[in-house]
Amino acid sequence: MNDLAVNRQTFDEVMVPVFSPASFVPARGAGSRLWDTEGREYVDFTGGIAVTALGHSHPELVRVLHEQGEKLWHVSNAYTNEPVLRLAKRLEALTFADRAFFANSGAEANEAALKLARRVALERHGADKIEIISFTQSFHGRTLFTVSVGGQPKYAEGFGPVPAGITHLPYNDIEAARAAIGPKTCAVIVEPIQGEGGVLPADPAFLRALREACDAHGALLIFDEVQTGVGRTGHFYAYMDTGVTPDILTTAKSLGNGFPIGAMLTTKEIAAHFKVGVHGTTYGGNPLGAAIADKVVELVSDPALLEGVKQRSARLTAKLEAIGKRFELFKEVRGKGLLIGAELVTAYAGRAKDFVNAAAKHGVMLLIAGPDVLRFAPSLVIPESDIDEGLARLEKAIEEVTGATADAAAR
Ligand SMILES: *Cc1c(COP(=O)(O)O)cnc(C)c1O
């Protein structure tokens, strides 16, 4: 029998080393608090990377998990099921979309979107219209297609030939987009806020220019809302506050609050280019995931909850700005709703990870978005008292990191 005693060290012995997880091992969560295997408690500002929108072990979600778990988990897409049909109806009532395809992750939702865009262009315009335009620093997932479309070359290099017909442009550069989008453009894919790339919001005028250029050239506009979707910005989807409607929207992360599920939403006309057998998945839209996501969407789309996101955002942002002033630490605090980035001043450039590590020691979990940005993506229902407590702990961590630097500089 296996030795069942495991710890952080075990990771290095049994796992493919593509991650470098924190030194502690989370064991239990409730709301926005988390406990590790040693019983130490943390305030969670990461939300599992913008995933646990309703916090850990939300009672309503636990109830649905149990109820559906006792009924039916999986039947494959040779059959449909009631939870997935309800979820599709709910998402379509909330959005521009009237067709949905379910997958298990953000990357798979984007893979479906990109394949659909290529198929639409082929059938409507012919074999030359294959160019996909995306933006530098963007992130769309880790499959070979999505990593090639993503704007961080280091993620796509070293795996042999990548799919052809992909162009990267600078984000928020209207002139570059107008110049590049043309008759060969099949689709433009954009994050309304670049999450992994540094919490960089798109200019509404930039998104409008993309919409106009796509319309002028018969290209599809894809919004990757994997990180910004499901209430994250204080709107159910970020596009709703931009005045721009995409042709295809992808969503995942918060959609299942930690149960893996992603979706591609689109219109009936576009969806009609995917015929039976053209694309597929074994797990996507299974009744267990769909039942949970349906409850997540029901709870998060409540206007009172979305209003609460804006209030929490204002509190977190104001307090971060004050901390930034006090320690002369942040160049800028930016983002929207509860997707907030604090960019470090030049003196601390490249050291975001040091702050994250120090924060963990002081009992608060946060994320980076590149080497210079601290990222906050907590639960959308995080109590204000947890925001305050988490930031108090963060201040102690900042004192430690900046104090250490001052000492080193004095030496
Ligand atoms: C996280 C993320 C993805 C990838 O989602 P996975 O579930 O990890 O495949 C894609 N796009 C954006 C914008 C993301 O933030």
Automatic annotation (TrEMBL):
The keyword Transferase applies. GO terms for cellular component: cytoplasm. The modification N6-(pyridoxal phosphate)lysine is found at residue 253. Its cofactor is pyridoxal 5'-phosphate. One of its GO terms (molecular function) is diaminobutyrate-2-oxoglutarate transaminase activity. It is found in: Cytoplasm. InterPro entries: Ac/SucOrn_transaminase_bac (IPR017652), AcOrn/SuccOrn_fam (IPR004636), Aminotrans_3 (IPR005814), Aminotrans_3_PPA_site (IPR049704), Class-III_PLP-dep_AT (IPR050103), PyrdxlP-dep_Trfase (IPR015424), PyrdxlP-dep_Trfase_major (IPR015421), PyrdxlP-dep_Trfase_small (IPR015422). One of its GO terms (biological process) is L-arginine biosynthetic process. It catalyses: N(2)-acetyl-L-ornithine + 2-oxoglutarate = N-acetyl-L-glutamate 5-semialdehyde + L-glutamate. It holds the Pfam family Aminotran_3. Binds 1 pyridoxal phosphate per subunit. Its main location: cytoplasm. Pyridoxal 5'-phosphate binds at residues 106-107, 139, 224-227, 282. Pathway: Amine and polyamine biosynthesis; ectoine biosynthesis; L-ectoine from L-aspartate 4-semialdehyde: step 1/3; Amino-acid biosynthesis; L-arginine biosynthesis; N(2)-acetyl-L-ornithine from L-glutamate: step 4/4. It is an enzyme of class 2 (transferase). Belongs to the class-III pyridoxal-phosphate-dependent aminotransferase family. ArgD subfamily. Homodimer. May also have succinyldiaminopimelate aminotransferase activity, thus carrying out the corresponding step in lysine biosynthesis. This is Acetylornithine aminotransferase. The lineage of its organism: Bacteria, Pseudomonadati, Pseudomonadota, Betaproteobacteria, Burkholderiales. The gene is argD.
